[in-house]
């Protein structure tokens, strides 16, 4: 059990390095997005042989949502602070809450609905800091990546065992879809190449491999809480290595979103431990 928890923490630490690496690189967003995903697709295909199979139609839809998520996250990191990018993408649970009745026929409980205003409050605080035009559009793209990440989560839940195929082909689609504009970017330096390899091999590829291992022996609730280390560390690395300081309102908003996510995860775990008779009046899901 200890080893599985360490796998999850290692995955969260690797994921959290994206912001600093993107800020340190002189490559364009297109170059980073394409190179990172193509390298990650190769690493995942080698690490998870089952992922090489072509996905079904539903799996393909989830792969496209994943591809849009990873590309838009890189673009957002280039246009706004890494803290804003990761915290706004982590609004995905809110969209899952709103869309699951439509896409999965699962109705939210009253406590889940009560969480919506808390998420919206934290979200709104990101736009109170003084923003230049780039930061505003970066925040909007990051917000959109939260929606596509939610669609990816819903898609992965719907396809079940096809999850590895979604990740492999999602990264492949992401890399190929922006390959053309990536060819017109600045000439990479040795540092850029090193950062790109790090992002593809470790920050995406190895991180998802570790995450999958950790989930085998760790309860979902505990796993969800452990990987909340990612949005906490992301702005820390960006500050230490790239000198980027997030705005005060972004920090407050991010803290609210993190606390709300942890609160919802704990409540969800308690609901999962209830008997069917206890859960029926509240959830009513099929």
Automatic annotation (TrEMBL):
Keywords: Membrane, Transmembrane, Transmembrane helix. SUPFAM superfamilies: Multidrug resistance efflux transporter EmrE. InterPro entries: EamA_dom (IPR000620), EmrE-like (IPR037185). Residues 6-127, 137-262 form the EamA domain. It holds the Pfam family EamA. Coiled coil: none annotated. The keyword Heme does not apply. The chain crosses the membrane at residues 29-48, 60-79, 85-104, 111-128, 140-159, 166-183, 189-211, 223-243, 249-267. PANTHER family: ACYL-MALONYL CONDENSING ENZYME-RELATED, MOBA-LIKE NTP TRANSFERASE DOMAIN-CONTAINING PROTEIN. This is EamA family transporter. It comes from Archangium minus. The lineage of its organism: Bacteria, Pseudomonadati, Myxococcota, Myxococcia, Myxococcales.
């Amino acid at each position: 059990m200890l080893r599985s928890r360490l796998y999850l923490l290692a995955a969260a630490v690797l994921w959290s390095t994206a912001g600093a690496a993107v800020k340190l690189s002189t490559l364009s967003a297109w170059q980073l997005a394409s190179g990172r995903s193509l390298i990650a697709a190769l690493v995942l295909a080698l690490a998870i042989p089952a992922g090489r199979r072509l996905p079904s139609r539903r799996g393909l839809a989830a792969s496209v949502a994943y591809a849009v998520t990873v590309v838009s996250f890189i673009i957002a990191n280039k246009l706004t602070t890494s803290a804003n990018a990761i915290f706004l993408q982590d609004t995905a649970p809110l969209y899952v809450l709103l869309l699951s009745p439509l896409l999965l026929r699962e109705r939210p409980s009253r406590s889940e609905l009560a969480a919506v205003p808390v998420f919206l409050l934290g979200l709104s605080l990101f736009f109170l800091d003084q923003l230049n035009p780039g930061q505003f559009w970066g925040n909007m793209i990051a917000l959109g990546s939260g929606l596509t990440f939610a669609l990816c989560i819903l898609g992965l839940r719907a396809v079940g065992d096809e999850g590895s195929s979604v990740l492999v082909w999602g990264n492949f689609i992401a890399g190929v879809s922006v390959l053309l504009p990536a060819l017109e970017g600045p000439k990479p330096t040795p540092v850029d190449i090193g950062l790109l390899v790090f992002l593809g091999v470790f920050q995406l590829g190895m991180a998802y491999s570790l995450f999958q291992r950790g989930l085998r022996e760790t309860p979902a609730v505990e796993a969800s809480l452990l990987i909340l280390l990612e949005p906490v560390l992301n702005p820390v690395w960006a500050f230490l290595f790239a000198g980027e300081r997030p705005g005060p309102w972004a920090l407050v908003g991010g803290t609210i979103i993190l606390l709300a996510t942890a609160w919802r995860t704990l409540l969800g775990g308690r609901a999962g431990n209830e008997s069917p008779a206890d859960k029926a009046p509240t959830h009513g899901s099929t």
